[in-house]
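Example 3.2
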Amino acid sequence: MTSTSLRWWRLSLPLQPELEESLLWKMESLGLHRLAVQHAPETPNQCTLFAWLPEPEWPEDQRTELIDSLRPLATTFGLSLPSVEWKQLDDEDWSLTWKQHWQADPVGDRLLILPAWLELPPEHADRLVLRMDPGSAFGTGSHPTTRLCLQALEASPPQGLQVADLGCGSGVLGLAALALGAERVLAADTDSLAERSTRDNASLNGLDEDRLMVRQGSVETLAVMHAGVQSQLLLCNILAPVIEALAPHFTSVLAPGGRGLLSGLLVEQAPRLTSVLEELGWTVVALRSQGSWGLMEISRVESA
């Protein structure tokens, strides 16, 4: 009696940076968890999304429907979804194949994002290592908005500061803040999987709740976590409309004289967001960009 080995479809999709987080979120929401993003640090604007789907569960009509469901995400950014390549694979250890698409990723002059299963490359031995399990849709530093935040943290290290991380995702920004000298990070995300991802990545880096505390929730939850002791730095890597909605509550977590790093916005959205923030009493200190993505640094002077 012969047994039939499981076969797989591997989806390959060239990925514009604007679409990375949206597509990962969408595919995770559809129950597709065998995902990887292949990118080279020297070419951050060129990457490929891979997904592995069990062949029996994904006949042609289902695969066509899947791609059709992704197209509106590209339209939101004024883009067209690139052509998808499907490849049939024999049964394999997909997790091993998945891991082969990840590599050590240097960011800026000092940081290194290192997949948990890899050894530290000797050429990066002098960098601050952030060990990450990229087995989620919450980012490991490859997206331009995340890199903008990491570079801004490195440019002005949060030495000795308490940091608030609103919409923490994988926790990579909080981990970087701690590696760069922060005293403590308080983090929150509305997604329970993000909360778990941040907690797991904190553990990978030997951090307990005294250094990195994370809870499921939004800015109200984060304010409760502060217990009246506000942070000196706010990290918020969320899409611009969400930043706008949360901005009136920033004072509940960010101390007077503190600063905020707001990313996740498109450069073209910066004028409206600047206007909203200024009406709330914030000053936009700087605007940095990478491609079409931007980062705002904000501050608020304490009233006399």
